[in-house]
Write a structure and sequence with these properties.
- This protein is 22% helix and 25% strand.
- By secondary structure, the chain is of the alpha+beta class.
- The strands form 3 sheets. The chain has a 6-stranded mixed β-sheet. The protein has a 5-stranded mixed β-sheet with strand order 1-11-10-2-9. A 4-stranded antiparallel β-sheet has the order 14-13-12-15.
């Protein structure tokens, strides 16, 4: 394994080559010394030893509000909304839970998790609002043809890996670089209909709106199996994408965090040695609950999520090396 991925902001905002990036989550899992040696090997000219005190001080300046998901970007910090619009009440948006909350995603709708800025189209204000209610002032040409009777939920997106570029553009009033941005729409919050019907309404609107040239509907694919999700995740990541989103079929739009919307974050593989087991509880009572493992770096951890029923009944033997698929949550 020559490099590792994480979905946290520290890894994503890192300007180093993809195979020479790290973050606090990777350092905790793999070990500080291991990571410094790997980065020195991969990027010898650009390697800089970490400074824990400096990072801790920087992190303290940007603590998130209590209860806010660390996986959500800080696109609202210090926004300049411009002279024409003031901060509004925060729109009630549908927020995602993690993929492990559902065992079998067959039949769910799957789409790419975009590396953009979440934006709510307010048809009354004729403006985009951030999750916190801060306006993004787009040029009139960008929002030409947008609906005046239907709210939209989507992301302002400049391309995979271009999150910082997008943030810079949308925070600047009438930036000329809005021409590089697309509005990727995935829902219509005010419609009181099931998800499939809302998507159909959006498709019909976009077909009729000839003047609207900056909107794309996010493609939805029906999941056929859990393996289908894993394969698609690998494909998206190979193209530089962030991950996947899963939407429960027939679900209504909820202006809160809901298990009807799930985020599938980046996986990576790493070799580890099984050193023991923990007994299962609840539905896993009587079988293995999790494996106790140790990395080459000496870091110990437990693997529970992702084990199949067969693996729980017949887990890998102690001391056997086992390839462990890990989900990096971006929060600890």
């Amino acid at each position: 394994m020559d490099h590792y991925y994480c979905t946290c902001m520290g890894w994503r905002m890192n300007k180093d080559p993809v195979n020479a990036r790290t973050c606090k989550h990777l350092k905790e899992l793999l070990g500080e010394q291991y990571e410094e040696a790997r980065l020195r090997w991969k990027n010898p000219d650009g390697f800089k030893p970490s400074s824990p005190k400096k990072k801790a001080a920087k992190a303290g300046k940007k603590k998130k509000a209590k209860g806010e998901d660390e996986d959500e970007e800080d696109e609202d910090d210090n926004e300049d909304a411009g002279p024409s619009l003031k901060k509004q009440g925060a729109p009630k948006l549908l927020l995602a839970n993690s993929f492990e909350m559902v065992n079998d995603p067959t039949g769910w709708w799957m789409s790419e998790k975009l590396d953009g800025v979440r934006a709510y189209w307010d048809p009354t204000l004729k403006a985009f609002l951030s999750r916190n209610g801060n306006p993004f002032v787009a040029p009139a040409t960008f929002i030409q043809g947008y609906p005046t009777d239907m709210a939209l939920d989507g992301e302002l997106f400049s391309g995979r890996g271009e999150f910082t570029t997008t943030v810079s553009v949308v925070r600047t009033v009438n930036s000329p670089h809005w021409s590089k941005v697309r509005y990727k729409v995935f829902d219509a919050p005010d419609l009181k209909t099931p998800f499939e019907a809302r998507v159909k309404t959006l498709q019909n609107w976009l077909l009729k709106s000839k003047a609207c040239t900056t909107v794309d509907l996010v493609e939805q694919t029906k999941v056929t199996s859990r393996d289908h999700v894993v394969r698609e995740l690998k494909r998206v990541e190979s193209l530089g994408g962030e991950g996947l989103m899963l939407r429960k079929p027939g679900s209504m739009y909820e202006g809160r965090r809901s298990s009807t919307l799930l985020k599938v974050k980046s996986f990576y593989d790493a070799e580890a040695r099984v050193t023991g087991y923990e007994k299962g509880k609840g539905k896993n009572e009587g079988v293995t609950g999790s494996l106790v493992c140790v990395m080459e770096s000496g870091k110990t951890f437990k693997v529970g999520t992702g084990l199949t029923d067969a693996q729980r009944r017949n887990p890998p033997k102690v001391s056997r090396r086992s390839c462990s698929r890990w989900l990096l949550n971006g929060s600890n």
